[in-house]
TrEMBL record:
Keywords assigned: DNA-binding, Transcription, Transcription regulation
Tagged with keyword Cytoplasm: no
Domain named HTH araC/xylS-type: residues: 187-297
Xref: SMART domains: HTH_ARAC
Protein name: Helix-turn-helix domain-containing protein
Listed SUPFAM superfamilies: Homeodomain-like, Regulatory protein AraC
One protein family per Pfam: AraC_binding
Biological classification of the source: Bacteria, Pseudomonadati, Bacteroidota, Cytophagia, Cytophagales
Naturally occurring in which organism (per UniProt): Hymenobacter endophyticus
Amino acid sequence: MNPGAAPTTQPISSHEDLNPQELKLKGFKAYQVDTAAGPSHAYRRRDFYKVALVTSPCTVHYADRSIEISTPSLMFANPHIPYSIELHDPRLTGYSCLFTEAFMKENDRSESLQQSPLFKVGGTPVFQLDEAQVAYAQSIFEKILAEQRTEYLYKGDLIRTYLHLLIHEALRMQPTESYVQHKNASSRITALFLELLERFFPVESPGQSLPLKTAQDFAHQLGVHVNHLNRAVKEVTGKPTTTHIAERFIGEAKALLHHTSWSTAEIAYSLGFEYPTYFNNFFKKHTGTTPLAFRRDTERVADA
């Protein structure tokens, strides 16, 4: 660790050759990480589960907690909780494997990964390893990488087995209790809420419906009580959680009305409203006009 190096925040993996389509087709993708720490940017592969062997000193900011990693550790991430990594070394090193829940449950009727102690909301995502455990985990990742390159017909089954070995190695370990309270927990949870809110925009298809709509929805996704989320957001921003949600929804609704030819019913559905009338009432409450009137006014201005 270089004490003079300024910490940088970035995703746990920084890989340029990841093919999302390949990952969707096969259900998994493993890679070795050894790259210079770049500028802060969002972790993009949030629609897949992840197991990583982290060998660089860093701090994992996860929901409203921060977890110090000073020794090599196994980290488990799910697609439902945003997180970031604050690096303390100039290079990021380790191994990662991304996979879908469908890949892990193929030919298996086990419980959902979301219920696993390693992946569930509020669970422990980091397990520090001793020297023997590091060697074992590294050997498993090397086997996954080697098998990934073969044409063996049943390599998916083998890779599933290797992933289960990593999962069971963590399950039989005591959870890491190296949580540290962030200097400003309210700022941390507020930033995570705003990042999670922003992640759903822009809406790109009328067939896409936003999955989270209420403060309770966002609190559940972040693994915190809704009262805690509301207090933190109000303390940091001066505005209630519901106001942030409403403002972002209205902003997106205006953009869709102005820049697309979607019907108001399509826009309502894409924003998570069950009925167009609910959307119309919501829009008028916050803007003083109806969606159709807003669209006519913007078209009139554009034609002027």
